[in-house]
């Protein structure tokens, strides 16, 4: 029986992982690899269009994952609200290298948001 992927289980996997990529693209690829290894039955895709002009970094089943290495808390929050309003996602996971982004945790509509800060090698 396969374990489903949700924000809590994905955050647990990513919290244990160690990353060496400092750029957003490399970090996205490494996160996708970690999730595919931990959840082989989940459909983990990168750069997925979820609405008019909206493209989320990763989509794992109905979990949206946004990766940030920069950006203000306000800008990130606005982006996540747009994603939450897409109707495509059940949950959002923000993977950010910025400690300030931890303040983004909230619920936008009925879409809860969790934040995880990756560990580096």
Detailed description of the structure:
- The chain has helices at residues 7-16, 24-38, 73-84; strands spanning 18-19, 44-51, 54-60, 63-68, 91-96, 106-108, 111-116, 119-120.
- The relative contact order is 0.20.
- It is 31% helix and 33% strand.
- β2 and β3 form a beta hairpin.
- It is globular, with a radius of gyration of 13 Å.
- The protein has a 6-stranded mixed sheet, sandwiched between helices. Strands 1-8 form a two-stranded parallel sheet.
- It is an alpha/beta fold and 121 residues long.
- The chain contains 3 helices and 8 strands.
- It has one domain: Endonuclease, Chain A (3-Layer(aba) Sandwich), CATH 3.40.960.
